[in-house]
Amino acid sequence: MKQGIEAAESAVPELEANWVAFLFFSARFVIATILTLALLPKARAGLSNPDAIRGGAWLGLILSAGYLSQNIGITTVTPGVSAFLTSLYVVFTALIAISLGRQSVTKSTVIGVLLATFGAGWIGGPPQVSLGFGEFLTIFSAYMFGAHIIATDRVTKENDPIEVTGPMMVTIMLLGAVMLLVLPIRSEGVSILTDFQEVLVTWDFFLPLFLCAALGSLVALLVLNVFQRDLPPIRAAIIYAFEPVWAGIASLVMGYDEIGFWFFVGAGALLIGNLVVEFEGLSVETMEE
Questions:
Q1: Buried-exposed string 244-272: b where 16+ CB fall within 10 A, e elsewhere
Q2: In this structure, how many other beta carbons lie within 10 angstroms of the beta carbon of residue 107?
Q3: Which residues contact 22 (CB under 8 A, 6 or more apart)?
Q4: Where are the beta strands (DSSP E) in 8-64?
Q5: What is the rounded distance in angstroms from the CA atom of residue 218 to the CA atom of residue 216?
Q6: Minimal CA–CA distance to 241: which of 93, 105, 32, 129?
Q7: Regions of the chain short of the pLDDT cut 70
Q8: C-alpha closest to that of 66 among 218, 172, 161
Q9: Cβ(146)–Cβ(237) under 8 Å?
Q10: 3-class secondary structure, 289
Q11: 10 Å Cβ neighbour count for 106?
Q12: Is the dihedral of CA 282, 283, 286, 288 positive or negative?
């Protein structure tokens, strides 16, 4: 995403970064939806299954709300603050799961959630948080990501996860298309959509876009739908919190960042939090046997 946004800014300097982010979101899921329906017959079959359509539509709506509020929020907050506030989805997942009776409160769960939230939020250093509109939008996105984990747990246990993936992708794609149709006109009287056409034919933008669509959307969300139903929601949330660790390593390899002291502190806290919850799960399974 970082590479794509930089390429777009270079191709059309007058195009604001937040509109590039919207384009990236919309075009990413257009490509991901086409690939999903072309490569997965079960995903196409889901479009004629009323239960799969309902479940997939809910997942698509929740995930879109999370992505969009995060994208808008990050235009007015720093990446570090955004990362910290987004990491609250681990806490929200736990609170929603416990309030719905989907998981019980244990000492290990509380410790794991707190360590994972701290690790994900502080991996780039102590965030300087002041609560404004952007911060509240980012907190809302964290809540929606937590709700998505809970909804995925329920929907994929009641439906075939691959069938659900088709309607979910179509829902996100349609929401992205609606966004593109209501884009504003620039001061010169030129629609931003015209700028988008110029950006989309830029190879340095399209290649990262395609990779995010194929790997970050199709593969990642498909794997999430298929396998998350085998995990308790809180454990899944803590595992997902490792995302900034992988991002940090990739960023280091690609020359965007340097790994410092806080990276190891955050990654260590995440690892310990995950192990605490995992060992609790193993203990429960052993007792049951």
A1: bbebbeebeeeeeeeeeebbeebbebbee
A2: 9
A3: 71, 179, 180, 183
A4: none
A5: 6
A6: 93
A7: 17-18, 75, 78-80, 102-105, 123-124, 127-130, 182-193, 256-259, 277-289
A8: 172
A9: yes
A10: coil
A11: 13
A12: negative
- Between the alpha carbon of residue 265 and those of residues 124, 234, 246, the distances in Å are 9, 22, 15
- The residue among 149, 136, 140 whose CA lies nearest residue 100 is 149
Q: What is the pTM of this model?
A: 0.80
Give the tens place of pLDDT for each residue, 194-204: 777 788 888 88
Distant-in-sequence, close-in-space partners of 49: CB < 8 Å, separation ≥ 6: 159, 163
Residue 105 CA from chain centroid, whole number = 25
Q: Please list the residues that pair with 185 across neighbouring strands.
A: 191
CB 15 within 8 A of CB 21: no
Q: Are 230 and 157 in contact (CB under 8 A)?
A: no
Q: Which residues, in sequence order, are bridge partners of residue 191?
A: 185
Looking at residue 186, the DSSP 8-state letter turns out to be P
Tracing tokens 């799969």 back to the chain, one arrives at: 52
Cα–Cα distance for residue pair 208/154, rounded to 1 Å: 32
d(CA 150, CA 269) in angstroms, rounded, equals 23
Map tokens 């609560």 to a residue. Answer: 131
Helix, coil or strand: residue 242: coil
Rounded Cα–Cα distance for residues 114 and 238 (Å): 10
The residue type found at 4 is: G
Helix (H, G, I), strand (E, B) or coil at 44: helix
d(C-alpha 8, C-alpha 50), whole Å: 39
